[in-house]
């Protein structure tokens, strides 16, 4: 039974390879679809590993190698072949950012795997930028978006997503399919179900909106915590100052 999760991981890796081949031949839509297929196999290998109780260090390392190809190299190559190929070295550098920062993100995740907070990821998980790139080029690039808006999004994706991958912003992990998970994290589970329905109803177009929503949650959470921490710290300092002044006043009387 231990080989079954690894089989899904290998299929993930193969889809990443097929995505690169498709992009090289100029079929960007097919290249994007293969990344989405890789995302499904990546999701199922974890589910199967937990279901069969066959999680292992070997599986973790193999999964990271597959993710590096499917969610690092492949989306970077899609960015290059679809937009940045006209900008020579500068375009190559921008295209490579998702691949480079994805490798850093995976290395950091593996190094901190033991004892990490299972409710949150530190930084955007590697598959999300890849799925964002794929859904954007499939449904929005020069289609639902004008060429000018599309260009702005390409630069935002190429620069912003790599930085978010290595950020310390906290992002929710995918809830497990179980009654216990539904009871402990009802809001998260409901959002996932509604998102799946939205993506199905919109025939995939809602996937890009879901990715943007997920990416924004970490930024919003960190901003809220930063404001709360500074406001509470300032308020505590003012209260401490007032208490000290009151003590001095009482002692002088």
Query: What proportion of the residues form beta strands (DSSP E)?
Result: under 5%
Oligomer: single chain
What best-fitting shape do the alpha-carbon axes yield? globular
If you average the pLDDT, what whole number results? 86
**SSE arrangement, N to C:** HHHHEHHEHHH
Q: Give the N-to-C terminal Cα separation.
A: 80 Å
Regions with little confidence, pLDDT below 50 for 5+ residues: none
CATH superfamily assignment of the domain at 3-174?
A: CDP-alcohol phosphotransferase transmembrane (TM) domain
The CATH level-2 architecture of the domain at 3-174 is identified as: Up-down Bundle
Order of strands, widest sheet: 1-2
Please explain how this structure is put together.
This protein is mostly helical and 253 residues long. It has a domain at 3-174: CDP-alcohol phosphotransferase transmembrane (TM) domain (Four Helix Bundle (Hemerythrin (Met), subunit A)). It has helices at 3-24, 28-52, 57-82, 88-111, 127-144, 147-165, 179-184, 186-201, 206-252; strands spanning 120-122, 170-172. The chain has a two-stranded antiparallel ribbon. Helix 2 (28-52) packs antiparallel against helix 3, helix 3 runs antiparallel to helix 4 and helix 4 packs parallel to helix 6 (147-165). It is globular. The relative contact order is 0.09. The model has no long low-confidence stretch (mean pLDDT 86).
């Amino acid at each position: 039974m231990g080989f079954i999760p690894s089989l899904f991981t290998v299929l993930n890796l193969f889809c990443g390879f097929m995505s690169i081949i498709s992009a090289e031949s100029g079929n960007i839509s097919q290249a994007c679809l293969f990344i989405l297929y890789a995302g499904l196999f990546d999701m199922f290998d974890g589910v199967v590993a937990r279901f069969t109780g066959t999680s292992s260090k070997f599986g973790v390392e193999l999964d990271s190698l597959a993710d590096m190809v499917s969610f690092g190299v492949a989306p970077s190559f899609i960015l290059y072949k679809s937009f940045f190929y006209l900008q020579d070295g500068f375009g190559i550098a921008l295209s490579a950012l998702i691949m480079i920062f994805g490798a850093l993100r995976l290395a950091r995740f593996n190094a901190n795997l033991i004892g990490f907070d299972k409710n949150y990821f530190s930084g955007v998980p590697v598959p999300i930028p890849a799925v964002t790139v794929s859904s954007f080029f499939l449904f929005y690039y020069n289609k639902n978006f004008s060429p000018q808006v599309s260009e702005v999004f390409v630069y935002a994706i190429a620069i912003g997503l790599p930085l978010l991958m290595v950020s310390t912003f906290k992002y929710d992990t995918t809830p497990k399919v179980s009654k216990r998970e539904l009871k402990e994290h009802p809001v998260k589970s409901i959002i996932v179900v509604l998102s799946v329905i939205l993506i199905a109803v919109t025939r995939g177009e809602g996937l890009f909106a879901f990715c943007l929503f997920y990416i924004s949650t970490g930024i919003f959470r960190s901003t809220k915590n930063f404001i709360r921490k500074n406001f509470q710290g300032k308020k505590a300092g003012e209260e401490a100052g007032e208490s000290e002044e009151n003590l001095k006043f009482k002692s002088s009387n």
